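Before the break, one more example. Copy the sequence into your notebook; we will annotate it together after we see the structure.
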Amino acid sequence: MFTIFIFIVILGILVLVHELGHFLVARMHGIKAEEFGFGFPPRALGVVKDAKSGKWKFIKGNKEVVSENTVYSLNWFPIGGFVKIKGEDGDGKKDANSFAAKSAWIRVQVLAAGVLMNFLLAWLLLSGTFMLGTYQDVTGENVAGAKILIQGIEENSPAQKMGLQIGDVLLRGGSGSFKTVTEVQSYVGENKGREVLLVIQRGKKELQLKGIPREQVETGKGALGIFGLSEVVTTSFSFFEALWKGLTEIGTIILLMLGVFGKLFMGNKEGLTVTGIVGIASYTGQIIPLGFSFLIRFMALLSINLGIVNILPFPALDGGRILFILIEKIKGKPISQKVEQAFHTSGFLALITLMVVVTYFDLVRIDIFTKIMGIF
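Here is what the structure looks like once it is written out:
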């Protein structure tokens, strides 16, 4: 249950920040935001400033409110939030405070603001981890006190089956304490086909896990299925250094994610796993025991991912709406509202279908009873 709570909080913050970006930029350009809500309708309660008296009035329930000012609401489904912008459906083109009445450039700014806010949040989160202290790779440098960190685990490998997770620190094996990556590789290599015992640190816990390294190993794969082993030390940075490190890391992550999307677009799925809400919730449960810094970095990755997905030129997404504005500028006249609405509706249905399919494969790929039911 705790994992579900943390997952809902993370998802809620990411969506709320995204919608806050739309809201702030819309208001900055004089566009009316009819409602800004925490959570999704139906509305539980809300407040709105009376245009005449200037006093705040409480609103109970989901009744319609006619006001010149924004309704700030608390809704019954506490996941994320939403902003209802006047004219976002194409109406009110003659009203100065309508989204539809604004120039193409202003409309693009409003639509792109949510993505930029997700990137800004990720920057602040990553910078925070660099100030608090984060792992730095010192593999091969023989640094005293370095830890052996697992950065990747192959699907359905012996490592995964024995319970190893990304972020685990390898402490000891049958041959004694591990000081270098080479020592880990040698220990595993010498025991192919035989049971090995690994002592690992996960967060504040020390665990003993057993597994059998594969005797036959494909080229480029390890006997246990661990990849990305690194020798790391914990390093903290000053405020300005942390901001710069956070910015450069965001650039690196964006490039990596765009590469993944590019491979998917080209039909190359080798080594890639598409994960939906269920899979992300499962990963959240694995990240929590690793500590606060790992959880914050995980949240930053999700924020960047949300930003990239939303800026894709697909109907119903922010990027799709921006695409229609660009087409409008090229044509020199607006696209039929019915045509655009039909595209966005079709895109929304396609996204819902994709979500259902991905969720189904999430449930097939992971052990439902030990992982999904175990979340509760």
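The CA atoms of residues 149 and 169 lie 5 Å apart. The first strand starts at residue 33 and ends at 49. Try to locate both features in your own notes.
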